[in-house]
Amino acid sequence: MSVLKNSVRMTLVSAAALTVVASIASATPSTTSTTTVALSAGDRHKPSAKPTVVLVHGAFADASGWNDTAQQLRHRGFAVQAVANPLRGLDYDSAYLTAQLKGVKGPKILVGHSYGGAVITNAAAGVPEVKALVYIAAFAPDRGEALGGLLEQHADPTVPQLPQQAFQFTRPDGSARWEISLDPAKFRAAFAADVRRDVAGRMAAAQRPVAAEAFGQPAKHAAWKTVPSWALVARQDRAIAPSLERFMAKRAGAHVTEVNSSHAVMVSRPDAVTDVINQAYRATR
């Protein structure tokens, strides 16, 4: 038990440096982007020619966070699948997504938010027809890197500790496990400061906890080494430090767009997220 508590404590420290989710000011944020791609008439009328966009959420969230992004993508003619990420640990979640992807026929663009970025980085390896990886305020670890280690190595004193709550439960086999969630009262400030208060309240209530070991398991693959990548950096992210997002994007050779947004950029700025995904499509079609 003491070993488990120490392991969890180390994970929490890492996740604190991590701050896997974010926050920004409460006004409609301005956007500056290294590239802006206009929607052409042809984009709206060729659904069969476009890849399926697979959206993978991160910790302290669920698939509903992609609703507005998915709607905009469908309007542009994309098929969309928003996966329910199990949040049981990087190995488990990556294996789950790999199995899901094998059921998606034809070309695919994988999009990961936050912890979901680590999952797509692992899962895409060996899956045919993945045309692009898109990182939305997300982790993009290299092989052998754990997310907690990345957070510690790239700690930013301007990014506060996440208001985490840990709880323990006993599995049917008698083993104990720890889960981490965010304090609902502090969720908006930490995760979604530029999201409407009522919407952020619903997000806090519906958040799904993540297994504590998720930030301690090393990545087994780094698909960005062979698959083209795009990254959206949330400049006012207070979960993952923007400097860490830039570091990982640069290392991956990603095409980078930056916006003034909180960590929950897919909720506050679905237009910016959709534009980055469209950039990836147009560059790889």
UniProtKB/TrEMBL annotation:
The keyword Signal applies. Residues 1-27 form the signal peptide. Gene3D superfamilies: alpha/beta hydrolase. GO terms for molecular function: hydrolase activity. InterPro entries: AB_hydrolase_1, AB_hydrolase_fold, Sec-Metab_Biosynth_Hydrolase. Keywords: Hydrolase, Signal. Residues 53-275 form the AB hydrolase-1 domain. The keyword Zinc does not apply. It comes from the Bacteria. This is Alpha/beta hydrolase. It comes from Streptomyces finlayi.
